[in-house]
Amino acid sequence: MKKLTNKTVFITGGLSGIGKVCAIAAAKEGANIVVADMKSADSEKTLGEIKKENPKAIFIECDVSKFNQVEGTIQIAVDTFGSLDVALNNAGIGGVASKVGKMSEEAWLQVININLNGVFNCMRHELAHMWKQKSGVIVNMSSVMGKVGFSTSSHYVAAKHGVIGLTQTAALEYATDGIRINAICPGFVDTPLLTKIGINDREGAKQRIIDLHPMKRLGKPEEIANGFIFLACDDSSFISGTTLEIDGGYLSE
Ligand SMILES: NC(=O)c1ccc[n+]([C@@H]2O[C@H](COP(=O)([O-])OP(=O)(O)OC[C@H]3O[C@@H](n4cnc5c(N)ncnc54)[C@H](O)[C@@H]3O)[C@@H](O)[C@H]2O)c1
Fold first, then answer.
1. Average pLDDT over residues 219-237
2. 156 in active site
3. How confident is the model at residue 169 (pLDDT cuts 50, 70, 90)?
4. Residue among 54, 78, 17, 38 at smallest CA distance from 225
5. Of the residues 50, 59, 89, 93, which should be mutated to test ligand 1's pocket, given the most ligand atoms within 8 Å of the CB?
6. Nearest residue CA, atom 34 of ligand 1?
7. Which residues, other chains included, contact 70 with Cβ-Cβ below 8 Å and sequence gap of 6+?
8. Which of 4, 15, 118, 148 has its CA 20 to 30 A from that of 57?
9. Is there a domain that residue 183 lies in?
10. How far is the CA of 93 from the centre of ligand 1 (A)?
11. Active site residue: 59, 81, 108, 156, which one?
């Protein structure tokens, strides 16, 4: 039995890494997929990979940090497939590393605008539709850094803590409207993000990151997707306002 047959699943940042693998996993479970992401040379190729699992998939170019763009994108999703059943608010960046006392305003705002305001922008418009439907599931991508600090990443840490606060508050507000809202807190996962923040290039950096996890390895995007499918489908029907840590033991140390 497929777990998301005919459900419309909206995924931000679905062209790469965790979002892409979640999109493929949801398509395998029978969902219609809407990928919202920045323009990319790979968009057609990635959409093709998703369509192999379910041809009912579309890509919409969208910058999640832009309130009006997000509103229009979610409207296209609803107009195309007739409902918005599941949203994975996943788009995010690592940002420029710096101690708080040396961080530029630009570096701070770049991460907050995408990783925190972007999740608000999405929830704001997703919930407007889900409230009318009286059903829906939202999964927000936080991080282990939504629970603890990480030196030189105050913008990222603050944004991911904020995502958990948003998740818990909205879960309370919509608990009797048939809408469940949860967050996932991955440890470090092997995706292009790690290359973008220089972890794969710097001598010893990757090993130091691996060593932060008691399992002594990075996570795989598929392991995050397994958690996403669980939270997206009825297997988690009594779960709302929680955080699912998929972190190789990172937060237990
Ligand atoms: N990789 C990790 O170690 C890790 C760990 C914990 C949490 N996360 C979180 O998981 C999420 C996905 O990360 P990933 O590792 O797959 O990264 P990734 O870089 O592989 O993918 C991120 C995607 O988000 C998109 N994106 C970036 N800015 C955007 C914007 N303004 N509007 C729309 N789309 C935008 C990118 O184009 C890309 O497709 C992020 O929120 C990240 O913070 C990642």
1. 98
2. yes
3. very high
4. 17
5. 93
6. 37
7. 36, 62, 64, 118, 121, 122, 124, 125
8. 118
9. yes
10. 5
11. 156
Domain residue limits at 116:
8-192+220-246
Q: Which spans in the chain are helix H?
A: 17-28, 43-53, 67-81, 105-111, 117-133, 154-173, 192-196, 205-210, 221-232
User: Does the model's pTM come out above 0.90?
Assistant: yes
**1 occurs within a structural domain:** no
Q: How far apart are CA 81 and CA 161, in angstroms?
A: 33
Asked, for residue 92, whether it belongs to a domain, the answer is: yes
| Through-space distance between the first and last CA atoms of the chain, rounded to whole angstroms | 38
- Tell me, in angstroms, the distance from the centre of ligand 1 to residue 14's CA: 8
State percent of the chain over pLDDT 90: 96
For residue 234, give the DSSP letter.
Answer: G
Q: Is 38 touching ligand 1 by the criterion CB < 6 Å?
A: yes
Instruction: Residue 26: give its domain's CATH number.
Output: 3.40.50.720
Could you give the percent of the chain with pLDDT greater than 70?
A: 100
Residue ID of nearest Cα to ligand 1 atom 41? 92
What is the Cα–Cα distance from 33 to 31, expressed in whole angstroms?
6
Report yes or no: 11 and 26 within 8 Å, Cβ to Cβ.
yes
How many structural domains comprise the chain?
1
Residue 212 resides in a domain: no
In 3D space, the residue among 238, 185, 232, 193 whose CA is nearest the CA of residue 32 turns out to be 232
